[in-house]
Write a structure and sequence with these properties.
- Among the domains are: 119 residues, NAD(P)-binding Rossmann-like Domain (Rossmann fold), CATH 3.40.50.720; 73 residues, no CATH class.
- The chain starts with 6 loop residues before the first strand and ends with a strand.
- It has 14 helices and 18 strands.
- α1 packs across α12, α6 packs parallel to α10 and α7 packs across α8.
Length: 409
């Protein structure tokens, strides 16, 4: 029988997730864990806890020999990386929810764990309350995966739900998400697809043993969605969801992207609404499995952090098993079908195999992910909305529209 460690926790950050963690830890039974020090920046902010719990000097936690687990829950990825490095090297295990920090420093973080012998756990960094990382590590450790995809961002899913179900425009739906605390004052990471991309990179590491840099992975968001876009989707009896996807395209290569996608009612994610996340894991033997849970909010994310704390009390570590099995390479040469819409869509130049007019200011292109990455900055500056079409039945419907015209590229 494994003996559980009695955990003394040093916590960095006491925002929404930090307070959520404090709440779920206080109401949990069966785990020997106590928050003994909290590091924050704002000395003037009123706190609901005893002021003696708080420190404003990051090294106080690192140098405290009583603390054996550091929980990092701050927003700044660079500062978070320094905290994690220092904590591991000081002999402490670490739990973090900072997906940007992990995505930008994945190789270095794995090397640090090997160097120090201490664990870095980050279940809360991907898909909120869904226990997807350890599921991929343990349940699918020896099974060949065909793909992992899903709705990884609760903020954008909430916005798209309001647009499709209530007919709100993008700005109004975003305002509602901000008021509910799902979106930050600056929603760039969410609505432009970066948050989902960082999570995708993490899951790709545990699914395929492939570790990428953020600039190597394509991401488009929902910022430029227009009424005409969801009207087109509705005419096709489809919805638009922001989908993150990684999948093998042959025995040696995988492709990855984050982008809005048209899906029909037969799609497993069609009815995943509001702030919920959904993850589809497709494997060789177990076929498709769908995981659904809340992806936004302090308590759901705090619950995922608590899960890591509990695992840490049993001395659990990620083994990165897929990295020692079949080795895949990441490629951006996969051909994809995408809708381009916007007043600048007609004049926009991009390398493509074909370009077809679907309706006014909306075109269907067949091109590569690499071409989209190359043109990404210009696409976003032009206000063009990009949506992937992977469903063959939808492709046939689009290609049979009255206004279809094949254009020279």
């Amino acid at each position: 029988m494994t003996t559980r460690k009695n955990l003394k926790i040093g916590l960095y950050g006491f925002g929404v997730v930090g307070q959520g963690l404090y709440n779920v830890l206080k109401n949990s039974t069966g785990i020997q864990a106590e928050i003994v020090r909290i590091c924050v920046k704002d000395k003037n902010k009123q706190r609901t806890l005893d002021k003696h719990l708080f420190t404003y000097e990051p090294t106080d936690i690192i140098n405290d020999t009583e603390i054996n687990l550091v929980v990092e829950l701050i927003n700044n990825a660079n500062e978070a990386f320094e905290i994690v490095k220092a904590a591991l090297r000081s002999g402490k295990d670490v739990v973090t929810a900072n997906k940007k920090m992990i995505a930008e420093n994945f190789h270095a973080l794995i090397a640090l764990q090997e160097e120090t012998g201490h664990a870095l756990l980050y279940e809360a960094s991907a898909c909120g309350s869904i226990p997807i990382i350890r599921t991929l590590e343990e349940y699918y450790d020896n099974e060949t995966l065909n793909g992992v995809s899903g709705i990884f961002n609760g903020t954008t899913n909430y916005i798209l739900t309001k647009i499709f179900n209530e007919g709100l425009d993008y700005a109004t739906a975003l305002k509602g998400a901000t008021e509910l605390g799902f979106a930050e004052i600056d929603p760039t990471l969410d609505v432009d697809g970066y948050d989902a991309k960082y999570k995708l990179q993490i899951l790709a590491g545990h699914s395929y043993g492939v570790f990428t840099k953020p600039n190597e992975v394509l991401n488009f968001g929902i910022r430029h969605i227009k009424t005409s876009d969801f009207e087109l989707a509705k005419s096709l009896k489809a919805k638009i969801k922001l989908i993150a996807h990684v999948g093998n395209i042959n025995n040696e290569e995988i492709a990855m992207y984050v982008a809005p996608q048209l899906i029909t009612e037969t799609h497993l994610l069609y009815n995943v609404e509001n702030e919920y996340n959904g993850v589809i894991v497709e494997a060789s033997f177990s076929d498709k499995q769908l995981f659904i849970g809340k992806g936004a909010g302090g308590n759901p994310t705090g619950s995922a952090v608590l899960s890591d704390i509990s695992a840490g009390s049993y001395k659990y570590k990620y083994e990165y098993k897929k990295n020692t099995q079949r080795i895949y390479k990441h490629t951006n040469n996969e051909l994809v079908n995408v809708l381009f819409s916007g007043t600048n869509a007609q004049a926009f130049e991009i390398k493509a195999e074909s370009k077809q007019l679907i309706k006014e200011n909306t075109y269907l292109l067949r091109t590569t992910i690499a071409n989209l990455i190359e043109a990404k900055e210009k696409i976003e500056k032009s206000g063009i909305f990009v949506a992937f079409v992977t469903d063959e039945s939808l492709l046939e419907k689009l290609k049979s529209t009255v206004e279809q015209t094949t254009l020279a590229i």
